[in-house]
Amino acid sequence: MRRSNSQSAREFAGFALPGLFLYGLLVLVPIGWTVVLGFTDRNRFAAATHWVGLEQFQRLFGDDQFWLVLKNTFVVTAIVVVVPNVLGLAIALLLDRNTLLYRLLRSLFFTPVILSGIVVSVIWQSMLRPGGVLNRFFGAVGWLSDPGIALYSISGILCWQMLGFCVVVYLAGLNGVPRELYEAAIVDGAGWWRRFGSVTWPMIASAVTINTVMLLISGFKVYEHILVLTNGGPGRNTTASIAFDVIEKGVRGDRIGFAAAEATVMLAIIVALSGVVLQVLRRREVHL
Amino acid sequence: MRTLRPIGAVALAALFFFPVYVVVTGMLKPVKDIQSSPLGLPTPPTTANLDAVLGREDGLYWSALLNSVQITVLSVVALTLLSAMLAHYLVRSTARWTRPALLMLLAGLMIPPAVILQPITQVLGAAGLMNSVIGVVCANVAYYLPFGVFVFAGFIGGVPVEMEEAASIDGASRFRLFWQVVFPTLRPAAASVMIFLGVWVWNDFLTPLIVLGPESGTTVTVGVYRSVGEYSTDFGTLYAFSFLASLPVLLFFVALQKQFVAGLTAGAVK
């Protein structure tokens, strides 16, 4: 298939350019712009912007609040990566029957996945507030008002929302395991745990990858749950995440340069984290 | 063991689903009953809370619904067409730059919106698209394009190229070839792209909050957030607003449940 230059230029313009143009203008340019702004003292209310080198980064790394926000983000992300993954697999094993009852239960578990974070937060806020349903059973627990508990409440709510996603992905993974493998294992006298370890677990490796990456991204970018449930409090930044801090300071607030430096650090972390996680998980898939 | 499994499964699902029960029953109760008996059934049910949201003086729910529908439909249609064409071009082209371009797009799957939102508002502002539905659509198309390309590229990689070559020998132009021969074969991929992005775009909060801004109304998600402050502890109305905001996406999901789960799990079984 030989084509003239003008023809291939027309093809590029027709097929590739519209998408690449928008992606470049509204994703790539903003990424570069954020990184550049991190080296300036840009402020919404200041007339002039100056190049300040690494000053914003020095300020950021010297700020206790930044480390607190970063720690919160890692706590939420760690819980959100582990809990729905483990519970999701357990529930998928429990629901791995193809009858009407189990199909219905799957839909119940999946419902929170298609609700928005705002709606989920409103639901839980009504249940966790001082006079809410949960405190009828547990006495007066400060789910969202106790600085030692609130971050875990938010993590728990995120887990509730993501659990159904993991269940459905694991069910599909389990569905793809050839029945003969189990039959062979039973003939060989393997017990439940042995069958799980030697057949199920290696066969659902790509489901583990999908869930882990998805949970990692969701946990790391958590924003609206915090906004609705605690607005970063109680007290100062006890539940604020790095995404929350970047938005509050740079988009809704005025400290654009400082927030851009923080966003640059956030970008570096997510790139490093996803790279490492993908490497580790992919290697496990290859080793089958 | 045989009876334990369904009982355990039902009990666990009931516990898990409890918050949704609280909302759906609470929305049909007078406010004082939500306080005094949050667990009870609404007897008799009242539509007062739903009426209050639907019949607001300022018509917030209806204007938000209109915005959400416009943004979701335009974003999803544009995303499906643009990402299918781009994915096809990148997979089929022999040019050297397409490989790195594909990788660069896939890297975009991981970028949190918080990192790029401030510059996005500047770009949209310079283009005169802030505070407009089209501005939100442009931001959505750019942000979700990697997902569409990812799904389509995986699918196109599995379609034999011979079919396209045979058709191109007949002298069909590349554009006609794509729309008449290639695109119809991509229908399963298009279905999962549309379903996923439909749900994600509908539920988006941050982009419409900032880009649409207070001047140009809200989407339903932002509407729920605004009404949190307004109704404060009037949970009957809040539940009703949350329910009405989620209803279209819930119906969409129920109608397309099969394709949704198929799309979600396509990658989980290899």
From TrEMBL, chain A:
Keywords of this entry: Cell membrane, Membrane, Transmembrane, Transmembrane helix, Transport
One example of a Gene Ontology biological process annotation: transmembrane transport
Topology in membrane: Multi-pass membrane protein
Any single Pfam family the record assigns to this protein: BPD_transp_1
Primary localisation category: membrane
Domain ABC transmembrane type-1: 70-277
Protein location: Cell membrane
TM segment ranges: 12-33, 74-95, 107-128, 148-172, 199-220, 256-281
GO CC list: plasma membrane
PROSITE patterns: ABC_TM1
Xref: InterPro entries: ABC_transporter_permease (IPR051393), MetI-like (IPR000515), MetI-like_sf (IPR035906)
Claim: Transmembrane helix is one of the keywords in the record: yes
PANTHER family named among the record's database cross-references: ABC TRANSPORTER PERMEASE PROTEIN, DIACETYLCHITOBIOSE UPTAKE SYSTEM PERMEASE PROTEIN NGCF
Name of the protein: Sugar ABC transporter permease
Organism: Kribbella soli
